[in-house]
Design brief:
Layout lengths: L1 H45 L13 H8 L8 E9 L3 E9 L4 H6 L19 H4 L8 E9 L2 E8 L6 E9 L1
Antiparallel strand pairs: 1-2, 2-5, 3-4, 4-5
Length: about 170
Amino acid sequence: AAMNKTKSKPRRYRTLKVILGILVTAIAIVAIGYLGLVFLLVKAFEGPNMFSNGCDPQTPQSFASMARVTLPDEFSDFDSYCWGMHGWSAEARFEIDPDDLEPFVASTSIDFTQLSAELPQRVNASYFHQSKGMMKSFLYGFAESSMDWYEEIVVDTSRPDRWVVYFVVLAG
């Protein structure tokens, strides 16, 4: 009987080591999964470019391509972002010469003759919300060609020499 006790101790010890190893591995997997989830949540709350900024502000043509518009030959203070999940959005803010507004709008689905000096209750262009309190005058327009494609423009016309364009496309 004494022999059986000595043989079962190493077996129990090995079983305990295996169980402990499985437990440590499971805890490590859960911890890594948790850290991954935290990383995704942090990225989600950083801003709209949660799933990459496909239209980097350093390359305005990437925005133009994604939004299917033609940017004026000369513009300044360009900023943009694109993001998406089940649908996508492309948005930009830039300054132009007032004479370049009509050709830019012609490259969109928005009817230039329908631009209005009245804003709706809800404006989708988020760059606009950062500076709407400083606008003295503006133009607004939108086009919805289908349930899957919506364009909106707000133009700050407060300065006679440079206008600020806020343009957004929502798709999908």
